[in-house]
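Researcher: Here's the sequence for the chain we discussed earlier.
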Amino acid sequence: MGNLKNISKLFSANVIAQALGVMVYPLLTRLYQPEDFGVMNLFLTVGSILTLVAVLDLHNALPLPEENKGALSLFKAGAYSLVVVVFAVILFIPFIGFFSAELVNVWWMMPIYVAVVGMWQLVSFYMNRDKQFGKIASYQVLQSSSNSLLKIVFGYLSPSGFFLVVASLLGQMIAFVSVSTKKLKGIFTELKTITSSDIRFYLDKYREFPLYAFPKNLLVQLSNGLPVMILSSAFDMKEIGYFSLAMTIGFLPIQMIANSIYQVMLQTVSEKVNRKEKIGGYIVKFIKYSCAGLIPAFVVLYFCLPLVTEWMFGDGWGRTGEVLRLLLPWCFATYMLSSLVFIPEVLIKLKGNLAIEIVNILVRLLVIEIAIYFDNFMLAMLLIGVSTFVIRMAQLFWFVSLTKRYDDSLAVR
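Model: Thanks. This is the structure I predict for it:
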């Protein structure tokens, strides 16, 4: 009952947050041009990659130690790493023009964005450890509502990709300061008791996270960002804008719902593993229920999306629906894997994940280059959607096999 309550709390917050986002987009698409969304998406894509580099995936390890000293040691290590990366991003400001003309005017915001989002990742997983799901839910709603409101205001005052980025940054900052200030004060007070030897001990104990989970997740972020980063150099930014909106209305709701499930299932499965209890039945039941609900819904969406997006977002935006329906296999795979990606982390079986991500990014590069060769943007969408689905379903099968092997090991004991 407690698990259902926690999932419901985070799920409700996600529904509210996404409802706010979806409701404002029909207005935003009438205020901004597709190219503006392309600039914002490029900024956020690069920002998400840098944020992951900054925390070295240590946030995912925070709920795992039985003793609080372990969580604090990992938090402190992540905070040190974050400071180093933010400083490096600041030093890079004068040189961004050599790499991306689209980011020249907005790069100065990148250090702030990485600092805020990186620290939130550390704080939110510490909150997860303390079962403070209400605060995590509050952040989601506040971030989405302030982000949406600011985009509308800037859209009437001075619509541009620059101000879409400003609104995205301010939304993160408002939510972070409002939700995290009190918690951060308590954490930093406790961090004074953590020594460098404590950090070394727990980094060694959970070394598979920076050694294997971090490069794996970095490859995930890179492969997810490749369509924007590479296709923006080969196709019109208007196409990137349609793709950006497709990602927003298609992937963000799924990702946020999956993250809510992930947060609660991570905490539950971690406790089961610490108590030496079986987890396979719990995981398989989730997969069955998810497939029963999502597959019929996605079939309907495939036929409806172009008409729905044209009606919802205005003339010309039906192209977004055409893009999104080709990415539906990727959406489905994202939901399943994002919900269950904690399995190899909890069982400390991370090498296989890294190998899968190497294959995924190589395939992603290949299909993008094929589409560029044929000068066909929609072919890129189709190949990305199908190839990602095949690889992720193989990864899901591996997740299930891990749980079965773990359960079998308990039976032997």
